[in-house]
Amino acid sequence: MAENVAELFVRTLRSAGVTRVWGLPGDSLNAFTEALRREDGIEWLHMRHEEAAAFAAAGEAEITGELAVVAGSCGPGNLHFINGLFDAQRSRVPVLAIASHIPSAEIGSGYFQETHPQELFRECSVYSEMVGDPSQLPWVLEIAMRTAIEKRGVAVVVVPGDVFFSDAPARRDSAPIRAAKPVIVPSEAELAHTVALLDGAEKVTILAGAGVAGAHAEVLALAERLQAPIVHAFRGKEHIEYDNPYDVGMTGLLGFTSGYRAIEKCDALLILGSDFPYRQFYPDKAKIVQVDIRGEQLGRRTPIDAGLVGDVGATAAALHPLLRTGRDGAHLKDSVEHYAKTRRELDGLANDDGKEPIHPQYVARLLDELANPDAVFTADVGTPVIWAARYLRMTKKRRLIGSFTHGSMANALPHALGAQAVDRDRQVVALAGDGGLAMLMGDLLSITQNALPIKIVVFNNSSLGFVEVEMKAAGIVNYATDLQNPNFASVAEAVGITGIRVEKAADLEGALRRALAAPGSVLVDVVVAREELSVPPTITLAQAKGFSLWALRTVLSGRGNELLDLADTNLWRRLFH
User: Which of 14, 34, 297, 329 is least enclosed by beta carbons within 10 angstroms?
Assistant: First the structure.
């Protein structure tokens, strides 16, 4: 019996090392799922929403660094991918999206469920193409997979349901598709120019992003030679923060004053593998050198004096012996001491002061202390990412995954699904916001359906907390941010997940210990303070003015109790902790 297109598709995935596919079935996908059913080496992970399936594939790819796959049926089915695929694309992880399509003969007629997926996904992919004829399939699929892997992004292959059932074309198999690993180093002239800039500076600071992954030793050696403090962007945190005597914390809206200060006071900033987007946090007068594997990234966020295209590790190793020795370490010493002071102040806010609701910093700090040294953390965009950035300490084996560039809500739960499927024995903890969890709450069912022992900690403040902070900074009275939440622990119990509700700080440590030790999935619903402020490392005049306006308008609107709650939650602790 001749092999059909769907069977060739599945065989090619297996040859490329794919071991699981995330998605939802549908009639236009029937041939594919039937071929998958007969393939012993690939697991179908059934989800309740295609958006969550795409996020899960992104989470898997973050953990493995290899190609992850998501599949959905025609029209509204694969249209739901879009947010999760944007996240994968902007996080630069390799994901193949299989988007089945309406019958070939009906394309262009306004047929039931008709969309044009190859156009819809073009903005959130490195490759997007439709297979209109079976003879295209081997070529389109191979190009898609190689492009996703080599460019580290999303590739979309659109296949009408009838084409899946067609006989596959004859073609000899290619070698298994795996990522190439070239080592790229700048030219000698470019290195010499960079060395001249750095040797001419007295106070060098390093800004490390996700591009320092795998280059921990080389970056620390460079910091030692330059006597440079290392500031990290959020996506660089998991790769450079651990075992790092030069670490001075994070910069940006979620960062520390120490990170901001180390950059502000330098006379040369060395950016390593970072696309940190906030221009207001770059120095005005310092010389700036940027190293990135992608040349098109150079100078896109701030003017630069030298741009190097190369691997961070190889480039750092090439620069190291060329740089002068015997540098004054005053800038480094001052920056590290300032970080220690900042760290003590932040840790002083993460405690049990006997009040209710619980301070969210305390939740994050306890999670950090109790979780395994190789735990995977995922964090929802919103207030959970603030507490993750400030209180989760990375180790060489810990991972931290989130929608840190795309900035989508509701990512923590599906990212955790993807991470947990890779290794069911590894501890995976999702730091979920109440708003984010509710947005894709149906995929709590995907946890039990796929028997994934994820631990979910809900920061339940009955509000869109980060939005409220932004409103305060803009001088706007909080409006439309209230959340009428259920007891999330009871919801979890109803779908087969162990649920624990915590309303008192004294009960928190025991609840988290119980959750983390449990063999199956657990949801801990923690009622946390709504009015907890997350102060950025530097406050602009406009923000200070906006906050004052918010306070005045809040009182005038008859909601002065909010101001009292804010003071009770924040002011006295910050003054007297």
Answer: 329
- Name the average pLDDT for the chain: 92
The answer on pLDDT for 52 being more than 90 is yes
Count of Cβ atoms closer than 10 Å to residue 540 Cβ: 11
| Residue entry with tokens 């580290």 | 152
Helices in 269-371 by DSSP H: which ranges? Answer: 312-319, 330-348, 360-370
CA distance 43 to 417: 14
Query: CB of 121 within 8 A of CB of 82?
Result: yes
Query: In this structure, are residues 411 and 439 in contact, taking their beta carbons and an 8 Å threshold?
Result: no
**492-522 pLDDT, tens digit each:** 999 999 999 999 999 999 999 999 999 999 9
What phi and psi values does residue 84 have, to the nearest 5 degrees? -65, -35
Tell me how far CA of residue 1 lies from CA of 135, 167, 240, in angstroms: 18, 10, 54
Q: Residue 470: is it exposed, middle or buried by C-beta count within 10 angstroms (0-12/13-18/19+)?
A: middle
pLDDT tens, position by position, 190-210: 999 999 999 999 999 999 999
Q: Measure the CA–CA gap between 124 and 463, rounded to whole angstroms.
A: 30
Catalytic positions are: 50, 112-113, 381, 466
Summary count for the chain: helices (H), strands (E):
25, 18
> pLDDT value at position 556?
43
The answer to whether the beta carbons of residues 367 and 512 sit under 8 Å apart is yes
CA distance 421 to 425: 9
Q: What share of the chain is helix, strand, coil (3-state, %, to 5)?
A: 45, 15, 35
